[in-house]
Amino acid sequence: MASLFLGFVGPWQIILIVALVLLLFGGRKIPELMRGLGGGIKEFKDAVKEDDKEESPEKKS
């Protein structure tokens, strides 16, 4: 899916998006936002793994 999206976005559009993000959030806020995003993704993956572990005994029965 990501490769499909990138097929329609050229390098100038990516540069423009990065510039807008820098203008909106500033250079100091971006690393903090990325840490928060990474933590959220990690929590989501852990929750999915935990959910799979709970379902696996039910499937064996």
UniProtKB/TrEMBL annotation:
Membrane topology note: Single-pass membrane protein
GO cellular component, one term: TAT protein transport complex
Compartments, record wording: Cell membrane
Any one of the GO BP annotations: protein transport by the Tat complex
Main location: membrane
InterPro entries: TatA/B/E (IPR003369), TatA/E (IPR006312)
UniProt-recorded Gene Ontology molecular function terms: protein transmembrane transporter activity
One Pfam family it belongs to: TatA_B_E
Transmembrane segments: 6-25
Keywords, ordered alphabetically: Cell membrane, Membrane, Protein transport, Translocation, Transmembrane, Transmembrane helix, Transport
Domain of life, source organism: Bacteria
Purpose: Part of the twin-arginine translocation (Tat) system that transports large folded proteins containing a characteristic twin-arginine motif in their signal peptide across membranes. TatA could form the protein-conducting channel of the Tat system.
Family: Belongs to the TatA/E family.
NCBIfam families associated with the record: tatAE (TIGR01411)
Subunit structure, interactors included: Forms a complex with TatC.
Name by which UniProt lists this protein: Sec-independent protein translocase protein TatA
Gene: tatA
